[in-house]
Amino acid sequence: MCARPHAGNSIALLELNGDLRHAHSELQSAHRAAERLRVRFTVEEIAEYAEADLLTTAQATASGLHEYFSSIPRNSIRDHALATSEGPQLNEAQVLDAIADIAAYMREQRERFLLLSEPLPEERVALLQPFFSPTLLRKIRIVQLANKGLSRVDVHPQTYGYQRLLDFTHMATVTFDDVVVANETLTTRLLFHALVHVVQFQLLGLQRYTELFVRAFVTRRWRFKVPLEAHAFELEAKFAADRHARFLVEDEVRLWIDRERY
User: Fold this and answer.
1) Whole-angstrom Cα distance, residue 163 to residue 156?
2) pLDDT tens across 172-222, in order?
3) Cα–chain center distance at 72
4) Among 14, 69, 147, 162, fewest CB within 10 Å belongs to which?
C-alpha cells in the first residue's frame, strides 16, 4: 500500500510529482512518435496497412490514458492556469514582451552551451552532406547533456500561462542558433531534425525566427502546430523514409520563407 500524498506527507508528494514528470516525459516521446506518423502517412493508409494488433493496442492505450487523465478533477488554480494558457489571446505589447524575453534566453543559452560543445563527428558530416551545405555542417556544435540541464525561462509576468512554450525539459533536442543540445541520445534522425532548425535560424535570423515561433504558438497554442516545427518534422520524415534521396534543406526552407508559410 502506498502512502497517501496529503499535504503533510512531503515524501509522498515528491513521489507523486516525480511519477507525473516521468509519465509526462513518456507521453511527450509518444506524442513525437505519433506526430512523425501523422506527417508521413494519412489515416487511410494507416487503417489499411498497419498491423492490426499494433493499431488496436495503440488506440486502446491512447483512449485509456485520455480517459484516466481527463477524469482527474482540476481545482480553481489549475483551471485558471489552463484558461490563461489556452483561452485569452495576448495583446500586441504582451507578444512583443514575450518575443524579447525568449530571444534573450535563446542568445544566453547559445553562449552557455557553446562553451560545452563539440563539432560534428566526421562520419556524420559525410552522412549529412547531401542535405546540408558543408559550411553549415562545419559550423554546427553539439552538446550531449549529462547533468547540465536547461535553465527555466523567466517569461514576462504578463505572459503567464505561456511558459510551456519554453518547456524544453522533455524535448529530445533543442536548437540555439548553431548549437544543438540533446536531452537524449542524439540519433541521426534527431540530429537531422535539429539541423533543419539551424537552417531556419541561419536564413531567418534569431530575432525573426523567435517572432514567427511566438506568434504562431500564441495563435495555435501547441508547439507541434507551429509551422517552423511542423516543417522540421516533415523534412525529418522525408529523410527517414529514404536516406538515399537527395534534397537540400536550405532550398526547402527558402521555399517556405518565400511563400510565407512560416
Assistant:
1) 9
2) 789 999 999 998 889 999 999 999 999 999 999 999 999 999 999 888 877
3) 26
4) 147
28: part of which helix (H) or strand (E)? helix 10-40
Beta carbons within 8 Å of 184's beta carbon, 6+ residues apart: 172, 190
Give me the torsion for CA of 27, 32, 34, 35, rounded to 10°: 140
C-alpha cell, 249: 534543406
φ and ψ at residue 223, rounded to 5 degrees: -55, -40
Given a contact cutoff of 8 angstroms between Cβ atoms, the answer to whether 10 and 205 are in contact is: no
Residues 6 or more apart in contact with residue 89 via CB below 8 angstroms: 218
Give pLDDT tens digits for 9-48. 666 766 777 677 677 767 877 877 887 787 778 878 888 8
Nearest to 220 by CA among 230, 208, 210, 209: 230
| pTM for the model | 0.67
| Beta carbons within 8 Å of 189's beta carbon, 6+ residues apart | 236, 239, 240
pLDDT value at position 94? 85
- What is residue 68's predicted lDDT score, i.e. its pLDDT? 80
- The one-character DSSP state at 116 is T
At 168 the three-state DSSP class reads coil
CA–CA separation, 176 and 200 (whole Å):
11
pLDDT at residue 41 in the model: 82
| C-alpha span between 71 and 74 (Å, rounded) | 9
Nearest in space to 155 (alpha carbons), one of 225, 74, 219, 84: 84
- The b/e string for 93-108 (b: 16+ C-beta within 10 A; e otherwise) is ebbebbbebbbebbee
CB atoms closer than 10 angstroms to residue 237: 19
